[in-house]
C-alpha cells in the first residue's frame, strides 16, 4: 500500500514571517524524532527561520490536546503568538482497547482546538497497527513510504497563510 501524502503544495508560500510550534510526545522516541525532523525541514523549505520554529515535548499523545492549548497560550503570553501548531504523536495498537480510546479522544480534541484557539492545529498523530507501519510513515524504512512530518510542516504553512487578507 502506498500512502502518497499531501502531494504538491497548491502554490508557493513564503513562510519567512511565520512562527510555528511543534509539540511532540516522547513515547516512541525514534519515530517521533524522525517526524519532528521532517516537519522542521519542510517548514524551513518555506523560509521559516529556525528561531521561529518552537519545539516542546510532553509525556505522551494523550496529553497532546491540553498540552497544545497550554503551549499556544504560553507563546501568546510571552508576546510571541504562533501562526500554527503541529502536535506530533504516535499511537501503536496493542492488545487492549487503550489504543482505540486514545486515538478517538485525541483526534476529536485536536480537531476542536482549531476552532477554540482560532489557529491551525495540524493533525500530526500517527495511528498505526504495527511498529513497522509507524516506522514506514516516519520515513525510517527505505523505499516504503515518505516522512509524514514533511506533510504536516507543509500543511501548517499553507493553513497559516492561505486565507490571510
What topology emerges from the helices and strands here?
Layout: E1 20-25, H1 29-45, E2 53-58, H2 64-77, E3 84-92, H3 98-117, E4 124-128, H4 131-137, H5 148-161
Parallel strand pairs: 1-2, 1-3, 3-4
Structural account:
The chain has 165 residues and is an alpha/beta fold. The protein has one domain: Lumazine/riboflavin synthase (Rossmann fold). Helix content is 44%, strand content 16%. The protein contains five helices and four strands. A four-stranded parallel sheet has the order 2-1-3-4, sandwiched between helices. α1 links the parallel β1 and β2. α1 crosses α5 and α2 packs parallel to α3. The longest helix has 20 residues. The radius of gyration is 15 Å and the shape is globular.
Proportion of helical residues: 40-55%
Rounded mean pLDDT score? 94
Strand order of the largest sheet: 2-1-3-4
The CATH architecture is 3-Layer(aba) Sandwich
Sequence stretches where pLDDT stays below 50 over 5 or more residues: none
| SS-based class | alpha/beta
CATH class: Alpha Beta
Order of helices and strands: EHEHEHEHH
Outline type? globular
**Remind me, CATH topology?**
Rossmann fold
Total of domains: 1
In percent, how much strand structure appears in the residues?
Answer: 15-25%
Q: What is the CA-based Rg, rounded?
A: 15 Å
For the largest beta-sheet, the strand count, sense and barrel status come to: 4 strands, parallel
Number of helices: 5
Would you identify the CATH H-level superfamily?
Answer: Lumazine/riboflavin synthase
Number of strands: 4
Whole-Å distance between the termini? 40 Å
Amino acid at each position: 500500500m502506498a500512502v502518497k501524502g499531501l502531494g504538491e503544495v497548491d502554490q508557493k508560500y513564503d513562510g519567512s514571517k511565520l512562527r510555528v510550534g511543534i509539540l511532540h510526545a516522547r513515547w516512541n522516541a525514534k519515530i517521533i524524532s524522525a517526524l519532528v525532523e521532517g516537519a522542521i525541514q519542510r517548514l524551513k523549505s518555506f523560509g521559516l527561520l529556525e528561531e521561529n520554529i518552537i519545539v516542546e515535548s510532553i509525556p505522551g499523545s494523550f496529553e497532546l490536546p491540553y498540552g497544545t492549548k497550554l503551549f499556544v497560550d504560553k507563546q501568546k503570553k510571552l508576546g510571541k503568538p504562533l501562526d500554527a501548531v503541529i502536535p506530533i504523536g504516535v499511537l501503536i495498537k496493542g492488545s487492549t482497547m487503550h489504543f482505540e480510546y486514545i486515538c478517538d479522544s485525541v483526534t476529536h480534541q485536536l480537531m476542536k482546538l482549531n476552532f477554540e484557539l482560532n489557529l491551525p492545529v495540524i493533525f500530526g498523530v500517527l495511528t498505526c497497527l504495527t511498529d513497522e507501519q509507524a516506522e514506514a510513515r516516519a520515513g525510517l524504512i527505505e523505499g516504503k513510504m515518505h516522512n509524514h512530518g514533511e506533510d504536516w510542516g507543509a500543511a501548517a504553512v499553507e493553513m497559516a497563510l492561505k486565507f490571510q487578507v
